[in-house]
Design a protein that fits this description.
Elements: H1 2-17, E1 26-32, H2 36-49, E2 54-57, H3 73-81, E3 85-88, H4 101-117, E4 125-127, H5 135-143, E5 148-153, E6 167-171, H6 177-184, E7 193-197, H7 212-224, E8 228-230, H8 241-247
Parallel strand pairs: 1-2, 1-7, 1-8, 2-3, 4-5, 5-6, 6-7
This protein binds zinc ion (ZN).
Length: 258
Protein backbone atom coordinates (compact mmCIF):
# COMPACT_ATOMS: atom_id res chain seq x y z
CA UNK A 1 0.00 0.00 0.00
CA UNK A 2 2.79 2.44 0.92
CA UNK A 3 4.51 1.57 -2.32
CA UNK A 4 1.30 2.27 -4.19
CA UNK A 5 1.01 5.77 -2.70
CA UNK A 6 4.69 6.42 -3.36
CA UNK A 7 4.12 5.47 -6.97
CA UNK A 8 0.97 7.57 -7.13
CA UNK A 9 2.75 10.67 -5.80
CA UNK A 10 5.62 10.26 -8.30
CA UNK A 11 3.10 9.78 -11.06
CA UNK A 12 1.11 12.85 -10.00
CA UNK A 13 4.12 15.17 -9.77
CA UNK A 14 5.31 13.89 -13.14
CA UNK A 15 1.94 14.72 -14.66
CA UNK A 16 1.97 18.20 -13.13
CA UNK A 17 5.44 19.09 -14.38
CA UNK A 18 4.91 17.82 -17.92
CA UNK A 19 2.38 19.97 -19.82
CA UNK A 20 2.47 17.89 -22.97
CA UNK A 21 4.39 14.69 -23.74
CA UNK A 22 8.02 15.28 -24.58
CA UNK A 23 8.73 13.70 -27.95
CA UNK A 24 11.72 11.42 -28.45
CA UNK A 25 14.61 13.03 -30.36
CA UNK A 26 14.21 16.48 -28.80
CA UNK A 27 17.43 18.52 -28.79
CA UNK A 28 18.08 22.03 -27.49
CA UNK A 29 21.03 23.89 -29.03
CA UNK A 30 22.63 26.63 -26.95
CA UNK A 31 25.50 28.90 -28.00
CA UNK A 32 27.68 30.70 -25.49
CA UNK A 33 29.84 33.84 -25.27
CA UNK A 34 28.79 35.66 -28.48
CA UNK A 35 31.83 34.81 -30.64
CA UNK A 36 31.73 36.34 -34.14
CA UNK A 37 31.21 32.94 -35.76
CA UNK A 38 27.76 32.62 -34.18
CA UNK A 39 26.63 35.36 -36.55
CA UNK A 40 28.69 34.50 -39.62
CA UNK A 41 28.52 30.69 -39.56
CA UNK A 42 26.10 29.26 -36.97
CA UNK A 43 22.99 31.36 -37.64
CA UNK A 44 23.02 30.84 -41.44
CA UNK A 45 23.49 27.09 -40.96
CA UNK A 46 20.63 26.87 -38.45
CA UNK A 47 18.41 28.80 -40.89
CA UNK A 48 19.38 26.41 -43.68
CA UNK A 49 18.28 23.43 -41.57
CA UNK A 50 15.24 25.15 -40.06
CA UNK A 51 16.50 24.62 -36.51
CA UNK A 52 16.03 26.80 -33.44
CA UNK A 53 18.71 27.85 -30.99
CA UNK A 54 19.47 29.95 -27.93
CA UNK A 55 22.35 32.42 -27.87
CA UNK A 56 23.64 33.13 -24.36
CA UNK A 57 25.32 36.48 -24.88
CA UNK A 58 27.76 38.51 -22.82
CA UNK A 59 30.49 41.05 -23.47
CA UNK A 60 33.42 38.71 -23.01
CA UNK A 61 36.37 40.48 -21.41
CA UNK A 62 38.90 41.79 -22.21
CA UNK A 63 38.50 41.70 -26.02
CA UNK A 64 34.74 42.07 -26.50
CA UNK A 65 35.10 45.19 -28.63
CA UNK A 66 37.25 43.35 -31.22
CA UNK A 67 34.67 42.60 -33.91
CA UNK A 68 36.89 39.93 -35.47
CA UNK A 69 36.42 37.93 -32.24
CA UNK A 70 32.92 38.79 -30.98
CA UNK A 71 29.50 39.77 -32.27
CA UNK A 72 28.45 43.37 -31.84
CA UNK A 73 24.97 44.22 -30.55
CA UNK A 74 23.58 44.92 -34.02
CA UNK A 75 24.47 41.36 -34.99
CA UNK A 76 22.86 40.03 -31.82
CA UNK A 77 19.77 42.06 -32.74
CA UNK A 78 19.83 40.38 -36.18
CA UNK A 79 19.82 36.94 -34.55
CA UNK A 80 16.66 37.91 -32.67
CA UNK A 81 15.06 39.13 -35.90
CA UNK A 82 15.92 35.79 -37.51
CA UNK A 83 13.83 34.11 -34.79
CA UNK A 84 16.55 32.88 -32.47
CA UNK A 85 16.44 33.30 -28.72
CA UNK A 86 18.74 35.82 -27.07
CA UNK A 87 19.43 34.85 -23.47
CA UNK A 88 21.58 36.08 -20.60
CA UNK A 89 25.18 35.04 -19.90
CA UNK A 90 25.95 38.08 -17.68
CA UNK A 91 27.54 41.37 -18.74
CA UNK A 92 31.20 40.39 -18.31
CA UNK A 93 31.12 36.56 -18.22
CA UNK A 94 31.25 36.69 -14.46
CA UNK A 95 31.36 33.70 -12.10
CA UNK A 96 28.03 34.40 -10.41
CA UNK A 97 28.68 32.09 -7.46
CA UNK A 98 31.12 34.72 -6.21
CA UNK A 99 28.82 37.74 -6.54
CA UNK A 100 26.64 39.58 -4.06
CA UNK A 101 22.98 39.89 -4.99
CA UNK A 102 23.50 43.52 -6.04
CA UNK A 103 26.43 42.56 -8.28
CA UNK A 104 24.52 39.64 -9.80
CA UNK A 105 21.51 41.87 -10.52
CA UNK A 106 23.80 44.41 -12.14
CA UNK A 107 25.29 41.72 -14.39
CA UNK A 108 21.83 40.52 -15.44
CA UNK A 109 20.31 43.96 -15.83
CA UNK A 110 23.05 45.17 -18.18
CA UNK A 111 22.13 42.51 -20.75
CA UNK A 112 18.39 43.06 -20.19
CA UNK A 113 18.79 46.82 -20.80
CA UNK A 114 20.86 46.27 -23.94
CA UNK A 115 18.16 43.97 -25.28
CA UNK A 116 15.44 46.43 -24.34
CA UNK A 117 17.18 49.29 -26.16
CA UNK A 118 17.41 47.17 -29.34
CA UNK A 119 13.86 45.82 -29.29
CA UNK A 120 15.00 42.31 -28.34
CA UNK A 121 12.56 40.52 -25.96
CA UNK A 122 13.65 40.48 -22.31
CA UNK A 123 15.90 37.44 -21.75
CA UNK A 124 14.16 34.83 -19.61
CA UNK A 125 16.85 32.14 -19.61
CA UNK A 126 20.35 32.10 -18.19
CA UNK A 127 23.60 30.11 -18.55
CA UNK A 128 26.22 30.09 -15.79
CA UNK A 129 29.56 31.51 -17.05
CA UNK A 130 32.26 28.90 -16.46
CA UNK A 131 29.53 26.74 -14.81
CA UNK A 132 30.08 28.71 -11.58
CA UNK A 133 26.94 28.27 -9.49
CA UNK A 134 25.68 27.65 -5.97
CA UNK A 135 22.40 27.66 -4.03
CA UNK A 136 22.59 31.42 -3.64
CA UNK A 137 22.83 32.02 -7.40
CA UNK A 138 19.69 29.91 -7.87
CA UNK A 139 17.88 32.04 -5.30
CA UNK A 140 18.97 35.26 -7.06
CA UNK A 141 17.76 33.94 -10.42
CA UNK A 142 14.45 33.06 -8.82
CA UNK A 143 14.03 36.59 -7.51
CA UNK A 144 14.75 37.96 -10.98
CA UNK A 145 12.08 35.57 -12.32
CA UNK A 146 14.29 33.71 -14.73
CA UNK A 147 12.71 30.57 -16.21
CA UNK A 148 15.53 28.14 -17.03
CA UNK A 149 19.25 28.17 -16.24
CA UNK A 150 21.71 25.92 -18.03
CA UNK A 151 24.69 24.24 -16.39
CA UNK A 152 27.04 21.49 -17.66
CA UNK A 153 27.43 17.94 -16.43
CA UNK A 154 27.60 15.98 -19.71
CA UNK A 155 24.33 14.15 -19.10
CA UNK A 156 20.77 14.17 -20.34
CA UNK A 157 18.11 16.58 -18.99
CA UNK A 158 15.28 14.86 -17.18
CA UNK A 159 12.57 17.51 -16.60
CA UNK A 160 10.94 15.55 -13.77
CA UNK A 161 14.24 15.17 -11.89
CA UNK A 162 16.50 18.10 -12.80
CA UNK A 163 15.64 21.51 -11.32
CA UNK A 164 14.93 24.12 -14.06
CA UNK A 165 17.88 26.18 -12.77
CA UNK A 166 20.24 23.19 -13.10
CA UNK A 167 19.67 22.02 -16.65
CA UNK A 168 22.55 19.72 -17.63
CA UNK A 169 24.27 19.89 -20.99
CA UNK A 170 27.15 18.49 -23.01
CA UNK A 171 29.73 20.93 -24.43
CA UNK A 172 31.10 20.23 -27.89
CA UNK A 173 34.78 20.56 -28.71
CA UNK A 174 37.22 19.20 -31.27
CA UNK A 175 37.75 15.90 -29.48
CA UNK A 176 34.36 14.59 -28.33
CA UNK A 177 32.41 13.76 -31.48
CA UNK A 178 31.84 10.14 -30.38
CA UNK A 179 30.49 11.30 -27.01
CA UNK A 180 28.10 13.79 -28.62
CA UNK A 181 26.82 11.23 -31.13
CA UNK A 182 26.13 8.85 -28.24
CA UNK A 183 24.41 11.65 -26.35
CA UNK A 184 21.86 12.16 -29.16
CA UNK A 185 20.64 8.57 -28.55
CA UNK A 186 19.63 9.54 -25.04
CA UNK A 187 16.90 11.92 -26.23
CA UNK A 188 14.10 9.44 -25.45
CA UNK A 189 11.63 8.46 -22.71
CA UNK A 190 10.91 12.05 -21.71
CA UNK A 191 14.53 13.13 -21.61
CA UNK A 192 16.04 16.00 -23.58
CA UNK A 193 19.57 16.48 -24.93
CA UNK A 194 20.99 19.99 -24.46
CA UNK A 195 24.24 21.01 -26.14
CA UNK A 196 26.54 23.89 -25.19
CA UNK A 197 28.43 25.18 -28.21
CA UNK A 198 31.06 27.91 -28.20
CA UNK A 199 32.68 29.37 -31.30
CA UNK A 200 32.31 27.58 -34.66
CA UNK A 201 35.23 28.08 -34.82
CA UNK A 202 36.31 29.65 -31.52
CA UNK A 203 39.39 31.74 -32.21
CA UNK A 204 39.98 33.13 -28.75
CA UNK A 205 39.15 29.96 -26.77
CA UNK A 206 40.56 27.07 -28.80
CA UNK A 207 39.86 24.53 -26.02
CA UNK A 208 36.15 24.91 -26.75
CA UNK A 209 36.57 25.07 -30.51
CA UNK A 210 34.02 23.35 -32.79
CA UNK A 211 35.02 23.34 -36.44
CA UNK A 212 32.30 24.34 -38.94
CA UNK A 213 32.54 20.93 -40.69
CA UNK A 214 31.92 19.10 -37.43
CA UNK A 215 29.03 21.38 -36.51
CA UNK A 216 27.45 20.93 -39.93
CA UNK A 217 27.86 17.17 -39.51
CA UNK A 218 25.84 17.31 -36.28
CA UNK A 219 23.08 19.34 -37.95
CA UNK A 220 23.01 16.96 -40.91
CA UNK A 221 22.73 13.94 -38.59
CA UNK A 222 19.90 15.57 -36.62
CA UNK A 223 18.05 16.43 -39.83
CA UNK A 224 18.46 13.01 -41.45
CA UNK A 225 17.29 11.26 -38.32
CA UNK A 226 14.21 13.45 -37.78
CA UNK A 227 15.26 15.16 -34.57
CA UNK A 228 13.35 18.22 -33.35
CA UNK A 229 15.86 20.99 -32.67
CA UNK A 230 14.62 23.92 -30.62
CA UNK A 231 15.66 26.86 -28.45
CA UNK A 232 15.57 26.69 -24.67
CA UNK A 233 12.53 28.99 -24.37
CA UNK A 234 10.49 26.48 -26.40
CA UNK A 235 10.86 24.00 -23.54
CA UNK A 236 8.13 25.99 -21.79
CA UNK A 237 5.68 24.38 -24.21
CA UNK A 238 6.42 21.06 -22.52
CA UNK A 239 7.40 21.89 -18.96
CA UNK A 240 5.50 23.74 -16.25
CA UNK A 241 8.50 25.46 -14.76
CA UNK A 242 6.76 26.82 -11.67
CA UNK A 243 5.53 23.37 -10.71
CA UNK A 244 8.97 21.89 -11.42
CA UNK A 245 10.61 24.50 -9.17
CA UNK A 246 8.14 23.71 -6.41
CA UNK A 247 8.48 19.93 -6.61
CA UNK A 248 12.14 19.37 -7.52
CA UNK A 249 14.87 20.02 -4.96
CA UNK A 250 18.09 21.33 -6.57
CA UNK A 251 20.65 18.50 -6.43
CA UNK A 252 24.18 19.91 -6.20
CA UNK A 253 25.71 16.45 -5.76
CA UNK A 254 25.33 15.71 -9.47
CA UNK A 255 28.01 16.80 -11.92
CA UNK A 256 27.13 20.31 -13.11
CA UNK A 257 30.13 21.46 -15.12
CA UNK A 258 31.64 20.34 -18.42
ZN1 LIG B 1 30.57 31.26 -21.30
Amino acid sequence: MILFFAFLSIFTSHAQIIKQPIPDKLVVLTFDDAPASHYTIVAPMLMEYGFGGTFFVCEFQPNYSDSTLYMNWRQIQELDKMGFEIANHTHTHSNVSKLSQAEFNHQLTYIESKCDSLGIPKPTNFAYPGYGLNAQSLAFLGEKEYVFARAGGSRVYDPVKDHPFLIPSWATDETNKAEIMKAFNQAEDGKIVVLTIHGVPDIEHPWVNTLPELFKGYLQYLKENDFTVISMRELEDFIDVNVAKRLIKPDFSKKLSN
